[in-house]
Amino acid sequence: DRSGELRSARDRQAVAYRALLAGDTATVAAAIRDGVPLSRLMLGFIGREPASFNIRGAIINSAQDLALYNLAHRTPFFESLKIAVLDDRRQVIASQVVSTGTLNESFAHPRDILAVIEAARAANPKAKIGGFMIMHNHPSGDPTPSDADRVMTRRMQLAGETIGVPLIDHVITNGERYVSFQESGMMTYPPAGDFARANAKPK
Known about the structure:
With 203 residues, the chain is of the alpha+beta class. 41% of the residues lie in helices and 18% in strands. The model is unreliable at 192-203 (pLDDT under 50).
């Protein structure tokens, strides 16, 4: 009967949604072929609470360290932008997901990044902030930075400079490989010029 068909459709959609959250692409693809509406799955996923990204206490000495932490906090379906605020010993004192976006783009405003940094300062008054790192994933499988990624990186650098906290690196991953803006020469840390001198440690 009609009610039985609706229950069956809801059950199939629930199975597909759980598979979506788990990153089970094969099950999701099979469900879509069987008639589960992709639009409903996407709307449900976009509207859900972003997964937490808590790596407080971790020591981040390289882009690879940060990329490895991303493996357990990524989705193959959407980009998500994360931040880690580090003290002067490279220990993470705050971290979180800042925004989630579409298949090809994550959206974030510099004020969202600055808010996390200022909250970290307030929560750790004795800590000396060494800088911050940002990271996002490319579900397309290619971690090569886009023009939008380059523009965002520069905006985040400038935002950090306004409060005296440098951007250490921007890392893009695809779950297996990563690209580091610092390691590839697309940005420098410590930053050059007056800002670097103003934030240099006294000898």
